[in-house]
Amino acid sequence: MKIETTFIKNLLIITPNVFVDKRGYFLESYNKKSLINLVEDEFVQDNESLSHKGVLRGLHFQNPPYAQAKLVRVLTGSVLDVVVDLRKQSPTYGQHFKHILSAENKIQLYVPKGFAHGFAVLEDNTIFSYKCSDYYNKDSERAILWNDATLNIDWQIKNPIISEKDKIAEKFSNFVTPF
Ligand SMILES: Cc1cn([C@H]2C[C@H](O)[C@@H](COP(=O)(O)OP(=O)(O)O[C@H]3O[C@@H](C)C(=O)[C@@H](O)[C@H]3O)O2)c(=O)[nH]c1=O
Fold it and tell me: InterPro entries, alphabetically (predicted)?
């Protein structure tokens, strides 16, 4: 497993070792010990979503004390994954990081607590899978507007398909971070 740091503190790119043989492949999708001292979260919930090409989900987070760290990956298809640093003491507060995650590259992102997370779907039948360090809590769900001008994110798709909830998400310009 290769673990790479990014320009945003504690945000990691994880590339698993893939063992290919005549049957197909094998990989360890999560190994707590390999991430020791880097990822201290205990993951308690696994989620999966299927999306069509052109879907955009995000930018989501849960308020403390229900904040979630996430370990995200793609099982089929591909996405542009985007995270925004919401930690007010962070030198990269308000900045975003993006990376292509695909069934082909098998890359995972470790997104600590204190980030908003979203993704734009680049292929039909994209299955997105992620581990979360806290349970879903409907009352603490928050969303920041994906196309807020202040964030200046190039999502690489035009006129995305988004949920009604995400259409009325908060503007980052009015946003007060809970982290
Ligand atoms: C996130 C979630 C949703 N749900 C339900 C609520 C709703 O009826 C349905 C669909 O939920 P949503 O529209 O919020 O799904 P979605 O827009 O895919 O939400 C997800 O987006 C990505 C970007 C994230 O980072 C995730 O943490 C999560 O917020 O599933 C759960 O039961 N458990 C969960 O953990």
Answer: RmlC-like (IPR000888), RmlC-like_jellyroll (IPR014710), RmlC_Cupin_sf (IPR011051)
Residues of the chain with pLDDT under 50: none
Which atom of ligand 1 lies at the shortest distance from residue 58's CA?
23
Q: Which of 99, 110, 117, 130 is catalytic?
A: 130
Q: Is residue 96 annotated as a catalytic residue, yes or no? A: no
Question: 3-state SS string over the chain?
Answer: CEEEECCCCCCEEEECCEEEECCEEEECCCCHHHHCCCCCCCCCEEEEEEECCCEEEEEEEECCCCCCCEEEEEEECEEEEEEEECCCCCCCCCCEEEEEEECCCCCEEEECCCEEEEEEECCCCEEEEEEECCCCCHHHEEEECCCCCCCCCCCCCCCCECCHHHHCCECHHHCCCCC
Global confidence as pTM = 0.97
* ipTM of the complex model: 0.98
pLDDT of residue 169: 97
Closest atom, ligand 1, to C-alpha of 119: 23
Out of 2.60.120.10, 3.40.720.10, 3.40.50.300, 3.40.50.140, the CATH code matching 41-174 is 2.60.120.10
Rounded distance from Cα 155 to ligand 1 centre (Å): 20
